[in-house]
Write a structure and sequence with these properties.
This protein has twelve helices and 19 strands. Among the domains are: 15-92 and 173-201 and 362-395 and 405-420, Nucleotidyltransferase, domain 5, CATH 3.30.420.40; 96-168, Dna Ligase, domain 1 (2-Layer Sandwich). Strands 11-6-1-2-3-19 form a six-stranded mixed sheet, with helices on both faces. 34% of the residues lie in helices and 28% in strands. The chain is α/β, with parallel strands linked by helices and 422 residues long.
Length: 422
Amino acid sequence: MVLPHQFGRSSGQQIIASLDIGTHKIGMVIGEVGPDGKPLILGVGLAPSQGLRHGVVINFDQAIQSIRKAVQEAQLTAGIQIQDVIVGIAGEHVHSVNSRGVVGVSRPDHEIIDQDVDRVLEAARAIALPQDREVLHVIPQEFVVDNQGGIKNPVGISGVRLEAEVHIVTGAAASTQNIIRSVSRAGLNVVGLVLEPLASSCAVLDENEKELGVALIDIGGGTTDLAIFYDGTIRHTAVITLGGQNVTNDIALGLKTPVESAEAIKRNYGCAHQDALKQAGSFWVKGIGGRESREVSFQALVAIIQPRMEEIFSLVSKEIKRSDFGDRLAAGIVLTGGGALLSGSEKLADQVFGHESKLGIPQGFGGLIESVQSPMMATGVGLVLFGIKNTCPSQIADAGRRSLWPRQWIDKAMNYIRKNFK
């Protein structure tokens, strides 16, 4: 899709900036298309996330300050001032459903043209929604012409009946508006909203994995996002309202230590599976309210972490089975997001899902590679790659029928914000 506004700089290079608004961190990534057409990462900014929970804004002032800190750091690193940004969206308010649309081919010669594709996609998205929900994405999965399925692009094919199978992602209108409002008040212009696991897939999955069948599991601070790909397109998405913060809270309760200390313990010593524990012995845990520190074994820490990670993976496994694609994951499981950094996560995933798993690390770009070569940066980098892919000149002709975010809705929301929140 062509973004509502074009990014740019004086050199004529195309600039794309992304904002990943999470429960633990807010990250901005600035990229551009290099002279050879390869994406380059120019700047990265990270700030502790405040004012958000499970992808929903709960304190505007705190959220705005966190966004500004990440933006300032990224702009300083890149040496570029950013105005337009693509924002990732996730959270428990995001739901998805598969839908089908059918139209008749109108031309006398029965050749399918772009307008026919627009009409069938519009028919497919005409689902009953409550007034408080909005369509975020309408993603074509396949087209069917006169009962002949498996067609990726029906333009030019002759037929009298055109069907489209699509994946529709919806979000709570108020939650989405609050995200846009926070970013706008931080001084940025939102030019696109993209489902976070869809963005992450651009950074950590290759086309072969998407063709063969793969489940991408993005473990964030407040939620865990699932996206299943098969036959080259997205087939199922879901949000589990558990994430890395739940692991941290369990450690804080189990070891009777402050949450800040529990987070540090998780990052420094955390392990998700007993068999992956590489060190014996113990470590010291800070007490609560001035109480004395005490020694805790690594085994005891794993005994706290593993059950929660098993619960998260088990809930994701139920979603995979509900999608009817559990037996079509030839490429297995890809784990990404900050929660995937726990050692032993892959081993535990192998055990729970019954598929081979691997860690998803952002790839396919140059520039500041070391700054973003971590699963926790998958969404930020993926948003940049998504933006580059969907604003390049070769995509312009297809923009109408391959729309992946609701441009009309964003325009409406931004006009509302400008009128009411100056």
